[in-house]
Each structure stands twice: as C-alpha cells, then as structure tokens.
Amino acid sequence: xxxxxxxxxxxxxMGQAVGSVLNQHGLRTIAALENRSPRTKQLAAAANIxxxxxxxxxxxxxxxxxxxxxxxxxxxxAQQVAQVISNVGKQILYVDANAIAPQKVKSIAxxxxxxxxxxxxxxxxxxxxxxxxxTRIYASxxxxxxxxxxxxYGLDIRVIGDEIxxxxxxxMSYAALTKGLTAISTELLIAAHRLGLDEQLWNEVSTSQxxxxxxxxxxxxxxxxxxxxxxxxxxxxxETFKEVGLTDRIFYGAADIYRLVKDTSLGKETPEESDRxxxxxxxxxxxxxxxxTN
Length: 294
Known about the structure:
It is a single chain. The chain is α/β, with parallel strands linked by helices. Helices cover about 55% and strands about 15% of the residues. α3 crosses α4, α7 crosses α12 and α8 (about 200-210) packs across α9 (about 210-225). It is globular, with a radius of gyration of 20 Å. The protein starts with a strand and ends with a helix. The relative contact order is 0.10.
C-alpha cells in the first residue's frame, strides 16, 4: 500500500511533532478537530496538519491512522474508529502508538481487526521528534513493514517482531526506567526539602552521582507539564508488570506522585508555558509547598 495521507489522533505535543516531520518530508497529514481545544487546533495549524473536521472524514481520507493519545483514551477512540471503518468500508492501517500495556493493546487489536482494518502495535521512545536522531518508533505485528514505509518520510521506525504487544511491552519496560526514576527522584527530593536536607542531599548526589544529577536536572523540569499524561502511563506499567507476575505497587506509587504534580501550578502549565530556565531547586520548593496540603 502506498501511503499518501496520515491521520493523526491526536495532534498534541507528540502527535503534532510527528505530523510536522511527515509534512516536511512530503506526506499529507490530517486531523479531526471538531470539538477539540483551541490549543490542539493551534498545534495542528503550526504543524500544517489539515483539519478535516469529523472522525468519519479522517478515516475516509487516510491511508494510515496513527493513534497518539493519553493511555486512558486509547481503547475508547479505537472503538470509535473501528465503527467508522465498518460504516465506510475503508481499507486502512491503524497504528496504536499509545503508552499502554501489551494486554490492552491486544484487546484493541481485536477491536480494529473486527472492522476489517490492519492493526500495528507501535511505541514511541524519546521526545517529540523535532530533532533528528533522538526519537525512535518501534513497531510489531505481521504487517509492521507497511508502517515502516514512514521511515522514508523522516521518522525512525524499527520493526522488532511479528507479535502484537511486543512494541508496547518495550515501551512499558523502558518508561518504567526513565519515568519511574523521575517519579522516585521527585518524591525523594521533596522529602529532603521537607527535612531541611535538600542542599546537603543535592551536594552529595552531585559529588557521588554526577551523571545522575545531570539527568535529574534535565528530566524533572521537563516532567511537570506532562505529569497529567504520565499518571495513566504509570498505571499501564503497573498492569504490565502484574500480568507477568511482578508487583504492581511500585508503579501505582509512581502514578500517585505524578497525580500530585499535575494538580500544582507547575503541573497545570502546558509545555509551551513552562519556563525552560526554571531551576530544579525552585521546582522542588514549589512542589513541596503546593502538595503539603493535598
């Protein structure tokens, strides 16, 4: 199948950047933006993602539908798309690139397959792909090579197997390391601040773990406007680990940390509003003070 048009569900921070890359390399990208927020519409316009209005029109015009949503919305939106596909009788490639557990992606695959569409499991590792070489998209499924065509249009897509769930499982494992570390570090830095030991702790970390200090100084400030999305991702990781016989409590705890952060003034900022020069010490102080009464 020759891919000419990619439908983006939805053009948030990640979806907008993916759409922008595809546009820059010659593909048409579209989105269904009726009833969407002004911010989402602005992000789509900035990336030259065309608004086709309805989900039905998006399916009619797309060769590939790429789902990049908050985890909680993945199954519901897939059900809506499957209904539209059934109604219009369109052959389409549906790519689920959401941060969800393998067992959930397998159930979504069944929903999409029942409509007659082709399903691909995918996962995005790295930041929104605004800088070449920093973001990888892993894919699995028997037809994953069809999706890999988008590597010709600026994306780094790597097929890792024929089984639905492999790409999502890789995302869950990797995000457990990166975002799990950020959650643990945020909590312990807040604890040190409340104990009056934040300066001493940071001096020790900077001395004995200088590479870790650099990672935290970068990861925690960039986390705060994304915390609302990471709550669901931690819960998906918890369910993934539970499914393979491990404890789910660690990552439900990480979800609790991100739930605290999302309700603070920092957590309510959009990525565009977040001050990139804000220092880690200021962030921890703010989080400590604003979560003390929660």
